[in-house]
UniProtKB/TrEMBL annotation:
It is a multi-pass membrane protein. The chain crosses the membrane at residues 41-58, 136-155, 180-199, 264-286, 301-328. Residues 342-360 have a biased composition (Low complexity). It catalyses: sphinganine + octadecanoyl-CoA = N-(octadecanoyl)-sphinganine + CoA + H(+). Coiled coil: none annotated. It comes from Vanessa tameamea (Kamehameha butterfly). The keyword Endoplasmic reticulum applies. Its main location: endoplasmic reticulum. This is Ceramide synthase 6-like. GO terms for biological process: ceramide biosynthetic process. It comes from the Eukaryota.
Length: 368
């Protein structure tokens, strides 16, 4: 019963250029070119579970001790006094304070007392600074390793230096083992981020990041099935570059290394604008939109692929506005404040409430 639907979905007229069939792209030992195997698009899912396990081990036994060594505390603010009625009201609507006045009258408390209890209760649901530091340290480590790995395997690939090679000879473009691993590892990491996002630090741009991860996974999957892995590797390499600085800024901020944070933030602005707002739209998307139709016949799936690239560009523009806003506030304040792309915690991201690593570092900050 499902077979007609599956066949209709994987229509060759949709997914492949004219005069091409799935049989032409099917990997077989007798073919001179090694094609991508569409069944491998599911390999990153179990690999994502392995990523989550590795992340748990590293955060617990490497990043957490390292964070404590830097003076980052894993404790949370004190708990509010037990109050069943306030607890029930909080669980019903933790983000609204409209009923505080009514609750104060019912409990014979002042409105300020209820607000203080509400604020303390909300802080209990937020992760500690150490938890957020470990999350960013893991992502920073991955982006550094993946960027170096991607640069290493693509250095001798012709399409890194001439983007037209992404289309010349398509779809009969061979796949190498190093590109296979680059694709599988990158896709597995974004699958792990999509799954772990629901219990990670909840940030204001939760849904933007969720859409970003889904769009990235869709891009990787579509480009893999359609053998468009060359342009996919360029997009991956370009994104990892700026993400290194994103996570470095956050980790340095949580560790209260302000000079390092400011330096990394400057590097973030340069790398982000040059890659996400410069190279990505004016080189990658320009190539997929203008050059590609000149070099190969278009087909419906290619427009889907290009639309997802444009969706990523929209998210880049939104985040660029937020980063520039932080940069403007940084110039006014004299140091980087807040979180990059979002603000996950009013308590830990504020300079007046951040964990101090030591009295001497706090005094140095005052003198600065």
């Amino acid at each position: 019963m499902l077979r007609p639907l599956i066949d209709a979905f994987w229509n060759e007229d949709v997914w492949l250029p004219p005069n091409s069939t799935w049989a032409d792209l099917a990997p077989r030992p007798d073919k001179a070119v090694i094609y991508t195997d569409h069944r491998h698009v599911f390999f990153p899912i179990p690999l994502a579970l392995l990523f989550i396990t590795i992340r748990y081990v590293l955060e617990r036994y490497v990043y957490s001790p390292f964070g404590r060594y830097l003076g980052i505390k894993g404790t949370k603010p004190k708990k509010p006094p037990p109050n069943p009625k306030l607890e029930a009201a909080y669980k019903a609507s933790p983000r609204t304070k409209q009923q505080l006045c009514a609750l104060a009258k019912q409990l014979d408390m002042t409105e300020r007392q209820v607000e203080r209890w509400w604020r303390l209760r909300r802080c209990q649901d937020k992760p500690s600074t150490l938890v957020k530091f470990c999350e960013n340290a893991f992502k920073f480590s991955f982006y550094v390793c993946n960027f170096v790995f991607g640069l290493y395997i693509l250095w001798d690939k012709e399409w890194l230096w001439d983007i037209d090679q992404c289309y010349i000879g398509y779809p009969h473009q061979g796949l190498t083992n190093d590109v296979w691993w680059y694709y599988m590892i990158s896709a597995a990491f974004y699958w792990s981020l999509t799954l772990s996002q629901f219990w990670d630090v909840r940030r204001k741009d939760f849904w933007q990041m969720f859409v970003h991860h889904i769009a990235t996974i869709a891009l990787l999957s579509f480009s893999w099935v359609c053998n468009l892995h060359r342009i996919g590797t360029l997009v991956l390499l370009l994104h990892d570059c700026a993400d290194i600085f994103v996570e470095a800024v956050k980790a340095a901020k949580y560790a209260r290394y302000q000079k390092t944070c400011d330096t990394m933030f400057l590097g973030l602005i340069v790398s982000w604008i040059s890659t996400r707002v410069g190279i990505f739209p004016f080189y990658i998307i320009w190539s997929t939109s203008i050059r590609a139709p000149m070099l190969l016949p278009m087909f419906p799936a290619y427009y889907i692929f290009n639309s997802l690239l444009c969706l990523l560009l929209v998210l880049h523009i939104v985040w660029t506005c937020l980063i520039l806003q932080i940069a403007y506030n940084t110039i006014k304040a004299g140091q980087m404040e807040g979180d990059i792309r979002s603000s996950s915690s009013e308590l830990s991201d504020s300079p007046n409430h951040s964990n101090h690593s030591s009295p001497s570092r706090a005094n140095n900050k005052k003198h600065t």
